[in-house]
Amino acid sequence: MFLAIDVGNTVTKAALFDKYEISETIRFPGNEIPDTLLTNKITECAISGVVPEVSNSLIEKIKSEVGITPFLISRASKLNIELDYDTPETLGIDRICGACGAVALFDKVYSGTSSRPKVIVTIDFGTATTLNVIKSPNIFAGGMIAPGLNTMFNSLTEKTAALPTVQLEDYDDIIGKSTVKSIASGVLNSTLGMIDKIITNLESENRDCNIYTFITGGNAEAIRRFISMNYYHAPDLVMRGIKTIYELNHA
Known about the structure:
single chain; alpha/beta; Nucleotidyltransferase, domain 5; 6-stranded mixed beta sheet; 5-stranded mixed beta sheet; 6 helices; 11 strands
């Protein structure tokens, strides 16, 4: 079995692949990988990480417990996309994996639906809300990084003594009738408005293309009912990108 690990800023996620399908997903803090994952059923492993010390610790633990050396994905790895980015050395590995996962998943979900050029958009609702744009023929053209939903909620609570703790579940209407509901509306609709603005701009600049949007991340399930545009919800987009990159580098 193949083990994909995504080391994030706040949590580490892992997925077990049985051939091409994910059989199990799990989240855990830092490098505290559950012993149940460290079995001899794992024959291959790849890690994507934005926290190097956690990634390195996991590599050593898996080498010791399972007897295999995980492949650490880097910007130098062979990809199914071309990077057109002014500062590739600062581009997050999670963003790269999400983009690679979307390109691979596109061929499975949308293959043959249209002969027009495509623009793929990935939106990851995590600690940060990141949006990436991949243009034909699979060129990573850039994107956007903004505070995530929970980051915005926490920032308001921590920086302003008089404001209460708020969650997305507190959202009621675009016009809040209480301070809690007003904060919930402000955070949610600033995120939605930002996304609508970018998609509208992409549609205007790419009139000859079809735009396909993939959403993922820890807050995707909670926010998806508020999204009006067409999209494909891919909870394991980064994991699929990790597996795709691993296969490209071990063909």
